[in-house]
User: Fold this.
Amino acid sequence: MTSTTPLLQVRDLRVRVGERTVLQSVSLDVPAGALVVLMGANGSGKSTLGMALAGHPSYQVQDGQALLDGQDLLQLPAHERARAGLFVSFQSPPDVPGVKNNLFIRTALNAVHEARGQQPLDAFDFLASAKQAAQELGLPQAMLGRPVNEGFSGGERKRNELLQLALLQPRLALLDEIDSGMDVDGVRAVVTLVQKLREQGTAFIVVSHYLHLIEQLQPDTVLRLDQGRIAETGDVELARRIARTGFARQPATAEA
Assistant:
């Protein structure tokens, strides 16, 4: 690998969900530290891309390639993709009854540390860093001792995803509507964390329709997904145009 090679390379990815081929052919590059915003109407394939990269068994890759720092993601089981540095947030984070939040995150973090050749964190050191990160994200520290997402509000679930992101510090993060259910302070926490991790080299693909968030994130690239293909590539001006006119297909771009 050279410094000019993108961290993530996706080529002609085709993904089937049930009886429907949702992604027809998607190709994109994401350099280290870059931020790509992915927009598109409901059903265009935004979440499908994230779930396919993460290795969700309901999303069947029919063709194509996805490389993370030269490593073939599609040949790895889901947990090995995470150990390789991939983080995918849920659009609707589920409950994990009976599993305490702090144990869940610490186990995941130590698995990543092992993959990186780093020493595991003991419970004391982990709790100190988790409490600090929770405070910075506006997540009550009491949430650390509760079962994962059980009884959490929508905004608290999203902040809990941010807590995992802050502690895991992945190489590539795909955030699926991370702003959904967030208040103003929550959106500010998203922007602050993303900027901090980008400075450390983490690359991002952010699915969002919230123009205010997109403008604050200052993306390198904005992509419009349409019927399972990337129909347009632009910058923040593309996001602004979509905010004004919606996702109605334009004759000038329908061939893209």
Observations:
- The longest helix spans residues 184-199.
